[in-house]
Sequence to fold (1179 residues):
Amino acid sequence: MMVKAVDYLEEDPVLTVVKQPRSANRAWQRFRRHRLAMFGVFMIVLLVLATAVGPHLIPFDDLFIDIRNRFAPPLSGAHVLGTDPLGRDLAARLLMAGRISLTVGFAAMVISTIIGTVIGVVAGFYGRIVGTILMRFVDAILCFPTIFLVLALAALIKPSVVTITLIIAATGWMEVARVVESQIRTLRERDFATAALMMGASDRYIMFRELIPNAIGPIVVAATLCIARAILMEAYVSFLGYGIQPPAASWGNMLNNAQQYLGSAPWLAIFPGLMITLAVTSFNFIGDGLRDALDARLDVS
Amino acid sequence: MSGCSDDNNTDSFLNPTRRQLLAFGLAGAAAAWMGPVLGWVPGAEAAGPPAKPTGQAIVGLSQEPTVFNPLMLHIEVDEAVYFNLFSGLWRVDPKGNFTPDLASEIPSLENGGISADGLTWRIKLRDGIKWHDGTPFTAEDVKFNIELINNPNFRAGRRAGHELVKDIKVVSPTELTWRMEKAYAPYQAILSWTFFVPKHILEKEADPNTSSFNNKPIGTGPFKWVERVPGDHITLAANTTYHGGGPYLERLVIKYIPDMTVLYTQFRTGDIDYIGLQGISPDHYDEAKGLAQRDVMPVPQPFIENIAFNLGLPVFQDRAVREALYYGMDKQSIIEAIYYGLPKESEAFLPAQSWAFNPDLPKHSYDPAKARKILDDAGWVVGSGGVREKNGVRLEFVNSTTAGNHVREQAQQLLQQNWMEIGAKMSISNLPAAVMWGEYWMMSKFETAMVGIGFMIGPDPDATDFFASRSIGAQGGAGQNTTQYASKDVDTLLQEGAATVDQDKRKTVYQKMQTVTRHDLPYLPIFQYAMVSGTKAGLAGFTPNVNVQENCWNANTWYWAN
Amino acid sequence: MARFIFGRVVQSLILLCLVSMIGFAVLHLAPGGPLAQFALVPGMSQADIARIAAQMGLDRPLPIQYWEWFTRLLLGDWGNSYRDSQPVLSVIGSRLGATLQLMVTATLIAIVLGVWIGVMGAIRRYSVFDYLGTIGAMIALSIPTFWFGLVMIYIFSVKLGWLPSGNRSTVGDGSFFDYAYHLIAPSIVLALVEVAVWSRYMRSSMLDVINQDFIRTARAKGLPERVVLFHHTMRNALLPMITLAGLELPVLLSGALVTETVFTWPGMGRLFLDSLGYRDYPVVMGILMFSAVLVLVGNLLADCFCAIADPRIRLD
Fold:
């Protein structure tokens, strides 16, 4: 269920036509005209700036416990967004949590995109036995419910920001691999790839210098949606009790810890819930915009 | 929300205003429709229990009972079913006294049931008791049960005590005797938690572990098995030929609701009539107290919340460290703020209700200055990052508990700040239950743990498994002494306590032992748990009992009073 | 075609073995175990734990345990649950109904709403409706399900008292009305994401078809727009949706883990989470194999369908 964000990206990668450098400019123009995508970019820039600079502007430490001042509602005193069950400033925690959540999302995306691309390229380029073995391996992993993989991996290693990132990345690269593999499979039959082969270029050169640059569009789209998925995933991992360890905050564990206060202190659940939704929506908007922008068919209409 | 049995204003149901209709919505309509089924009699004010079983009560639990052979390995919630489906030789009441159940009297030195050396036991059974299928219950059943527990192929839960029983002789259908290999005083308490299964059914089974009995259990208890919808609920119906009091309810439904927040919500909306294990989360206590038509009360439990030290680590071998950490703990804030004043401060490993409890132990105080002084005096000097060191050992450790216990995680974080102030650095690494309480705990692979433990064996204060030096699992021992605590004094006291039959003599022994453990502090006691329990107004008969594992232990005496 | 199917079936069987090995190894190598939950039961000791581990055969080497499990599976014996000692298949069977009920309802809502939103969005591309549809779908895909579910419960059950806060039915009431009433909240929560997915797929599939030559031809012939859209375009755009439905099959049955947990729905998803939490190895392995078979069958059906629908795709 939670992989849905990426599912619809797969709709038909083959249809996405290869970009030549000249059309990059046009794609960028199309992207800029995509209002939702620009909104997404704007929100992400804003979030990144806020989480980077914000904590220095707030007079409270995100870890300082003031037990007598617990559950202060928003706007009721010095704490703009109120305090949590231990009297910590919610705004400070929200921003610090943003650092962790966005970092986890971004890092997991980078790792899963790299793994997915390498496996996809190798499988797509060599095809036959190598391709079959690799893609069947991908199929085998996809046979496991994501939750199983996450929980099983989480049980194997000690939970920390780094391990959570690795776990999320380890369960997210298969989609990328599938997208890339099908791209490469069509690309390698094309003239420029055949030409490079004739000229005696090494396999590695063809794969990484010729094929990947030409498949970069779908990879970027997949990567964007990967971040969205990773941020959501972090929330689910926390919900299931394998998340970032206290006292560090992530949007996921803040939301998870706020569940029982939905009635008495709803702001504890509302703010992190909104932040997750905002960040994930923004990345989804960007991904959508990128796909439209890179889709040359739209030039025709 | 309107429930089924808590509303005696008939008119509002028969002639609802538009606003009420909207407010009650469809569930209200369903409740009104179900009224007669549940024995809700409009306007009738019954003073006592009904003449014949009437109505139903829904018990809500946050874990699922799944094991229905009470002798097999099981968890606490399973006992919610056992108390109602099965019977033992005797029960234990809230004061810790035994009351006869299948037995006609409690064996003692006075009535000759137990010999002076504690080795020979004679059990007399009540006459005329029948299993739910009509077969008479006899002494042969008792013999079969104790033998089954000791059957090497049978996945019995606890064997402590039972394994000492030898030469069981059936004298008559209502009398049997046996010999104990050695005197073991806690056995009476263990028997109060031992429920009996029918010999005539289980003896035919090739494999007692996977027998069909587990699917359709038959007992001698106040309720009979009706059905189980896995993952959802278990339905029991009144056993009209029950040998004890009641039952007054026609049906008892035990419902499993896997999330404490949802469990509470369902109590609030009236979907369940009694909220049992794990109760209402302390965060909801204030709100719950204000609910109309609900009786909400904190119920003491035998579990003590502790910080357990792994004494195998060099840093904790110094008693000064343990004592300083105790002084550095803001216990009051944990209890008053995080747990809303529900649990009671504790210095002992025994609950305050136990007959062996020692009320005269030194009182803890939160005194960071004193904590710092103790550490200074012991040679722990503040090093880099404000963390103390001594001989190259840093006062730095990991604390673990079950992941996902939000309230406990809050206490952990407060302790983290408390202890940093005295120069001790604690980091948190919580694990899923299946990992935390596996080898990590049993084989002392943790550094410190935050854990609620019932140290007693049944309602008996014998804590050999947790404190005796021969019980250290990590050193090949058989018990659960995971702190690796070893004390000659405690070993002697425990041995003496278990072998003595006389309760007054035992009391002195265990009180002395509590003084020793309070001084040595292998565990830092924080508080004795109180679980917030709740019933729908009008459900009479609910009696909390610290000596059992689930408070629907006496559901046979419950009834709807309005 | 037959050769292709045979090849894929053989491949799938090999894949299943692989899945079972990986699953078994990961599950058993993870720290902790099925006996951990008993550690804090009063009176439990290391001696009891060790004795029971031996009785259950958990102390034997992993390959031997795997081999025993595997050979029994080949004979049709899926083992018994550690928790309630029932056969794994009947444990799974007892949860299947609840999951099917929830998933079918949610999927029906999702297909009807999703197809409608997708088609309208594609026809009136870049209209206000299309934008709202897109934004709505994006947000729906971004909301953490458990958060949405809890907010639903809080508003509609706790504050307003309109809907039950969970469960599949009222105890003692087996009427259709009662079941339907309990279905409302969880199926809406579950359908939210599905509507988003279906509407996105449908929209893009419609756009693919609209841009194709035969639609232009149809329009050029002077056919009424309504006929072109609903007869020609939509029919063709729905074809890939059937593939999607094939791929959704396993999702349907493995259940919506989170929704089932939030709404205390006694389905497969929760069974899986519980069993994993308790390390009930036979049940977890059973569900893994069960869902792996569904994934493989779903993929195979989807591929076959593609091949039948589009002769350009060669299967071998």
Remarks:
- Chain A touches chain C through 50 residues (CB under 8 Å).
- The domain at 98-295 of chain A is CATH 1.10.3720.10 (MetI-like fold).
- DSSP finds 14 helices and no strands in chain A.
- The radius of gyration of chain A is 22 Å.
